[in-house]
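User: Hey, quick favor. My workstation is busy. Could you predict this chain's structure for me?
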Amino acid sequence: MGEMVIYNTLTKKKMPFHSLEKSRVKMYVCGPTVYGLLHVGNFRGAIFFNLVRNWLEAQGHQVTYVYNYTDVDDKIIAKAQSEGLSAQVISERYIAEFEKDFKRLGLKKHEHNPRVTEFIPQIVQFVAALIKQGKAYVVDGEVFYDLAQFPSYGKLSGKKLDELEAGHRVEVDQKKKGPADFVLWKPSKEGEPSWDSPWGKGRPGWHIECSAMIHEILGPTIDIHGGGIDLIFPHHENEIAQGEGRTGVPYCNYWMHNNFINMNDEKMSKSLGNIVTARKFMDDYHPEILKHLILSAHYRAQVSFNDEKILQTIAGLARVYGALRDAEKVARAPGADNVQLAGADFVKAMQAADQKIADALNDDFNTVEMGAQIFEIVRIFNAMTPTKKAKDVKVQACARLFLEWVRGHGHLMSLFGEIPAEFLRTLDRILLVKKGIDEAAVENLVIQRQLARSKKDFPKSDEIRQQLSAMEIVILDHQDGSTTWEVKKT
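Assistant: No problem, here it is.
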């Protein structure tokens, strides 16, 4: 198996991955600011970095994965004031809502989900250490990071301090020594959450929170820091300044950033009114569709959520789940236990796909190639026409191996764990809603057709089949005389 390489935002190139400690990985991903339901874009990181952690573990690493909750923030305070509630009530409400969505996606729990409010003493201690080292200064109870004391500032984003200081994207504050200096601690206004500190009652700045939690839970240097590309500057840039300013050692060895999600080919934004919460998407569609859509694109590429893409995703999931349903039927036979009877060609094809998937994931987590290999094995399995050869012991053994193989790879992505027949019926219902077709009307036509067939009224039976076909309903007449239907998916 080849060496794992990861694209590092810091070096702007792929680098061989070597953890600080052998077989142990310290990983931190910026979690949500909890003042509302999260949109689909917020969940791209949660879904993708779940795969990263699962693959690292599959390679024998012990991963400590920290995913935080920002529960002190201007947006939380504004929401609390608008509802006449405390900021804590708002943040706890939306942490609980996030955890409902996270559970629904079936993602693996993180080792740590620290809340900022649980780490105030460590944040105060961190800020005090920066002041003592001459890296930060106090003005009227407000503490700023002195960027003049950190010459390598900008190494992650490529932004130059002198350009920033020329006023580019920086609000000039007369209290600051340099225009790009940023807040570490600020006095709280009346009615806002506040904590005691050597500089007076106040609350932490946004950037210091992650640095303090990382330092406390994982130590001065971590292996992987993840987040969306919108966090590269200023958030992650400022984290580096804080962490390395305090310790003098590298803050993080590999920076990984996932790209945006576009909604109908436009960037999601409040001004466009095209923000879709993950909950609404999962209610309208299904968690499997959200996960598959996100992982069908490389994490560093943009992914578009539009009708065409959603229909493609449904078709792809139907192909995999259709094969899983057929494999389950065939694998129930007693002969299926004897996997030694499986055809050598099929075993060889799965082994070759295993290698290609490992190579793809080791090459900066190429989930696009991983998906292609899964579809290839599905194609080979379907070519065996398993349900027509259900009594063939060789096919039975292949079906058992196929089930294990798809579910094993699916586990890495937290996909393909649904009950196939039920999930396929769910996809049919989703498509009926999209097409504006009443399920009861379809059932009624199918019954009418069965009645016509029982009376040997074949012209009527053909007429109803054509009517259903025009609605993109596929009729399946089985050998035992039963009839089922499904919505056309490709």
